[in-house]
Amino acid sequence: MAEGLVPCPHCSKTYTMKKNLYQHMRTVHNVSPQLKGNIRCPLQCEENFSSHKELRKHLENLHKYVLENEIQEFENSETFDVWKKKS
């Protein structure tokens, strides 16, 4: 195989970019690639996630930790910008 090509683990196709391989795996093979992310579980269980949504599911299902949502409403974009700078 040529250097720099990423092979599909399910067929003989190869890709130059991982994102294209992952898209192929989702659409052709109906498989979600297991990606190691850089979002670590804050409860020291050594799990990493590629999205906050996955982390939230993990915390709720495995640790039985319920996360509360805080809803912010802004009158306009200027008040949002002020809030964003404070956060």
From TrEMBL:
Classification via PROSITE patterns: ZINC_FINGER_C2H2_1, ZINC_FINGER_C2H2_2
Domain C2H2-type: 6-34, 39-63
Keyword check for Metal-binding: yes
Pfam family, one: zf-C2H2_4
Highest taxon in the source lineage: Eukaryota
GO molecular function terms listed in the Swiss-Prot or TrEMBL record: nucleotidyltransferase activity; zinc ion binding
Keyword terms: Metal-binding, Nucleotidyltransferase, Transferase, Zinc, Zinc-finger
Entry-linked InterPro entries: RegFact_GeneExpr_CellDeath, Znf_C2H2_sf, Znf_C2H2_type
Protein name: D-ribitol-5-phosphate cytidylyltransferase
Organism name: Caerostris extrusa (Bark spider)
Lineage: Eukaryota, Metazoa, Ecdysozoa, Arthropoda, Chelicerata
